[in-house]
């Protein structure tokens, strides 16, 4: 295949595999991977950071293999909590007391007093009866959906919904429908098809590639009208939206309408893990049927202690989320003033949409990195082919000087290339 | 291979991948979504069909296709220009 043709392919094109052994990838995948730009893309995604994933950090650059100081607008450390001194102190103390591991799945022996206390606090925070902790966010979504849905049920997911919800739906055997992103006519049409079946509608508070918010009041109205349940993934909104930081449900004053709410502990919380909150009866039932909870080791104790402190720090007052909002507003204003396209972003998730030219996207990624700014390109199939982009994560940790330096680099490198 | 034969291969794969649908009920002027296919089902039908026709078109180039008939046109066009076909 000629080299330019190869670049039109993506990970979606090599799923089928006709090689003789299951341990051999498809031959054309190998050919695709060996294209210098494709290999560079994979290498760029795997660049090791040399210190904490804070807004200022060091990276071993894939561009020239130099260790380089960078402003990091890629990590999900939205509130900077992973390096907060009180969080680190709490984690250290738990490390001394409990050691490095939980040494068991929650079903058998992995539950420590820390897990029980943290789950209780999360349920109280989310104003639900009970909470289940998972060792990853992915596992939480997958385990919740796989655990409550059955063959014969309907799962209705926004087409921009996260892979973990799709995989949970697939494993459950429920009939899966996608509705057009945030499109209520499409949701309604889909709910018509599910009439008479147990149905769960799955949406995200803040969408992870576009940073726009779910139209929650409209979704709730439709769920009520059809008498179906609502599942809300608040991965990119917990601790950041709502008067008390409870998320987009609180932002719209509709938490009581959300049947099951999901959050991850890896983004604003700065650790790792996931959780769901709902009524006590379904949580009790899930303890028997949610595989990633039953059959995978519980979160490490030092991490739980850090997370518990992170929850306290982020909710004792509004300092961090106010700072995040101010930083987001500042970046948004200046990016828009430069004439760049941020799509429908309404949050700290802010894409800079470049277009279908992935070669240009990677050239720009290398260019800004050499100037000291780290942004990760996102291409098809993660986003539609014509909307290749950088996905910026704004953080409360950014100082005025960091933001101005980042904006200068964007102005010097990205703006001229996009305007051409 | 004629366009009608290509359409028949697509129909066969729709029947194999979706519940409760017969080939004779499929109107090529409609989209697979009209027959209850979600985006994962469509990927599966398209992959199986391309494999059977021994062609490979980047998925990114199929995003704008609106119905089964247009998909068949695109496949036929590729078979005519591809040395493998
Ligand atoms: C919307 C959404 N849900 C769930 C997850 C999974 O969370 P985690 O990365 O913590 O496993 C992510 C992040 O990848 C996400 O963006």
Q: What can you see in these coordinates?
A:
The complex is a heterodimer of chains A (420) and B (85). Chain A contains 16 helices and 13 strands. With 420 residues, chain A is an alpha/beta fold. In chain A, the strands form 3 sheets. A 7-stranded mixed β-sheet of chain A has the order 3-9-8-7-6-4-5, with helices on both faces. Chain A starts with a helix and ends with a helix. The mean pLDDT of chain A is 96. Chain B has a single domain, classed as Non-ribosomal Peptide Synthetase Peptidyl Carrier Protein, Chain A (Orthogonal Bundle), CATH 1.10.1200.10. Helices cover 52% and strands 0% of the residues of chain B. Chain B has helices at 3-17, 39-53, 68-81. The N and C termini of chain B lie close together (9 Å). In chain B, 22% of the residues are buried. The mean pLDDT of chain B is 90. At the A-B interface, β5 of A face α2 of B. Bound molecules: pyridoxal-5'-phosphate (PLP). The site of pyridoxal-5'-phosphate (PLP) has 13 residues of chain A, from α6.
């Amino acid at each position: 295949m000629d080299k330019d043709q190869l670049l039109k392919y993506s990970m979606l094109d090599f799923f089928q595999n006709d090689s003789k052994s299951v341990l051999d990838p498809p031959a054309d995948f190998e050919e695709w991977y060996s294209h210098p730009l494709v290999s560079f893309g994979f290498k760029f995604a795997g660049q090791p950071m040399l210190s904490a994933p804070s807004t200022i950090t060091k990276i071993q650059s894939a561009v020239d293999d130099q260790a380089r100081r960078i402003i990091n607008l890629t990590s999900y450390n939205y509130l900077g909590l992973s390096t907060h001194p009180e969080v680190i102190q709490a984690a250290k103390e738990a490390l001394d007391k409990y050691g490095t591991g939980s040494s068991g799945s929650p079903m058998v022996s992995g539950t420590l007093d820390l897990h029980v206390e943290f789950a209780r606090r999360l349920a109280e925070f989310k104003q639900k009866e009970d909470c289940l902790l998972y060792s990853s966010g992915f596992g939480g979504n997958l385990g919740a959906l796989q655990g409550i849905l059955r063959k014969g049920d309907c799962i209705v997911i926004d087409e921009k919904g996260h892979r973990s919800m799709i995989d949970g739906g697939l494993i459950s055997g429920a009939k899966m429908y996608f509705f057009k992103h945030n499109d209520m006519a499409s949701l309604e049409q889909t709910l018509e098809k599910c009439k008479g079946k147990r149905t769960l509608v799955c949406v995200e508070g803040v969408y992870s590639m576009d940073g726009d918010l779910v139209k929650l009041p409209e979704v709730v109205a439709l769920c009520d009208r059809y008498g179906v349940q609502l599942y809300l993934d608040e991965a990119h909104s917990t601790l950041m939206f709502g008067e008390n930081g409870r998320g987009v449900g609180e932002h719209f004053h509709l938490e009581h309408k959300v049947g099951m709410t999901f959050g991850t502990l890896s983004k604003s919380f700065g650790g790792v893990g996931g959780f769901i909150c709902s009524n006590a009866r379904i949580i009790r039932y899930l303890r028997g049927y949610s595989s990633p909870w039953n059959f995978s080791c519980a979160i490490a104790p030092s991490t739980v202690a850090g997370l518990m402190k992170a929850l306290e720090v982020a909710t004792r007052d509004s300092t961090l989320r106010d700072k995040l909002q101010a930083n987001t507003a500042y970046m948004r204003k200046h990016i828009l003033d430069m004439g760049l396209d941020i799509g429908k972003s309404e949050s700290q998730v802010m894409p800079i949409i470049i277009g279908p030219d992935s070669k240009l996207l990677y050239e720009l990624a290398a260019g800004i990195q050499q100037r000291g700014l780290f942004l990760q390109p996102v291409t098809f199939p993660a986003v539609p082919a014509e909307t290749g982009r950088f996905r910026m994560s704004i953080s409360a940790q950014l100082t005025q000087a960091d933001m101005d330096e980042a904006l200068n680099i964007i102005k010097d490198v990205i703006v001229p290339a996009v305007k051409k | 291979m004629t366009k009608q034969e290509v359409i028949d291969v697509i129909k066969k794969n729709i029947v194999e991948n979706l519940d409760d649908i017969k080939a004779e009920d499929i109107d090529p002027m409609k989209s697979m979504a009209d027959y209850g296919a979600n985006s994962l089902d469509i990927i599966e039908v398209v992959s199986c069909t391309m494999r059977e026709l021994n062609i490979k078109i980047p998925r990114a180039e199929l995003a704008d296709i609106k119905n089964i008939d247009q998909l068949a046109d695109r496949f036929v066009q590729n078979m005519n220009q591809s040395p493998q076909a």
